């Protein structure tokens, strides 16, 4: 089973790029974040033509939005809300074999890494805290689960282009890293990509639109993640980060797709 995740930054604007991903990588399941479209307007038809007959979408106009698109049927599906908001950031579904798949979009958190000065940053920290408690109280480490998405935090030193320069930049601050690390530890989540790529190697999934030449400057961050619970660790057989997708024309997302293969 090949699972892909991508913050597509508007599914309608980048449908041609999504279809390119599907043609080139042939994932069985695609999880999206920042779909930026209400459910009634989600462009289902071209995806159904490619075999993605099963879709669990949860979106709103212009902002946020998450989706799970699958060639495989769902045994069940649900939506989870956080921080008293219904802002379309978490959907999950059960795939064949009893695998529960979560597509998550954690808030970016604004620019100022101080929850007292910046309510967006406070929201982000609360979101991660609530998720951590939910995993601990509502889910078991023995359950076969995969969580993917734009978590908007780069936890390791080599998940950013410069650890020293980004310590005070939202996405790599010590408080964010500590909270995401606590969430990972909550039920023993395995970082599926770092399962294959040692933490000594640089690894990115996002490059800012502000860079004149993103590839040359290479000031990236690894914000997009795939985690699996311990029962699926030995089922991991491969991974891929489609760095080249950051340059896909005509209008690339600032994130690139991340994929893992599971022998299930």
Automatic annotation (TrEMBL):
Domain Endonuclease/exonuclease/phosphatase: 4-255
Pfam families cross-referenced by the UniProt entry: Exo_endo_phos
Sorted UniProt keywords: Hydrolase, Magnesium, Metal-binding
EC code(s) of this entry: 3.1.11.2
Cofactors: Mg(2+)
Keyword match Magnesium: yes
Primary enzyme class: hydrolase
GO MF annotation: an example: double-stranded DNA 3'-5' DNA exonuclease activity
NCBIfam families, sorted: exoDNase_III, xth
Protein family (similarity comment): Belongs to the DNA repair enzymes AP/ExoA family.
Protein name: Exodeoxyribonuclease III
Species, as recorded: Azospirillum isscasi
Lineage: Bacteria, Pseudomonadati, Pseudomonadota, Alphaproteobacteria, Rhodospirillales
Gene name for this UniProt entry: xth
């Amino acid at each position: 089973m090949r699972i892909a995740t991508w913050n597509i930054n508007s599914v309608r604007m980048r449908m041609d790029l999504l279809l390119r991903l599907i043609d080139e990588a042939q994932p069985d399941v695609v999880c999206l974040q920042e779909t930026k479209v209400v459910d009634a307007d989600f462009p289902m038809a071209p995806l159904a033509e490619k075999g993605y007959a099963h879709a669990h979408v949860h979106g709103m106009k212009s902002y946020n939005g998450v989706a799970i698109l699958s060639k495989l049927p769902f045994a069940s599906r649900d939506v989870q809300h956080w921080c008293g908001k219904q802002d379309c950031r978490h959907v999950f579904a059960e795939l064949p074999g009893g695998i529960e798949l979560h597509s998550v979009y954690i808030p970016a958190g604004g620019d100022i890494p101080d929850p007292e000065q910046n309510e967006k940053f406070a929201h982000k920290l609360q979101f991660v805290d609530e998720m951590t408690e939910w995993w601990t109280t509502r889910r078991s480490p023995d359950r076969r689960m995969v969580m993917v998405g734009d978590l908007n935090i780069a936890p390791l030193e080599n998940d950013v282009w410069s650890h020293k320069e980004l310590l005070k930049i939202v996405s790599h601050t010590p408080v964010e890293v500590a909270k995401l690390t606590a969430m990972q530890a909550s039920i023993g989540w395995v970082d599926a990509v770092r399962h294959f790529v040692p933490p000594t190697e640089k690894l990115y999934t996002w490059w800012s639109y502000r860079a004149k030449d993103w590839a040359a400057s290479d000031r990236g961050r690894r914000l997009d993640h795939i985690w699996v619970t311990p029962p699926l660790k030995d089922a991991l057989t491969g991974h891929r980060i489609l760095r080249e997708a950051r340059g896909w024309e005509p209008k690339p997302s600032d994130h690139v797709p991340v994929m893992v293969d599971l022998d299930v």
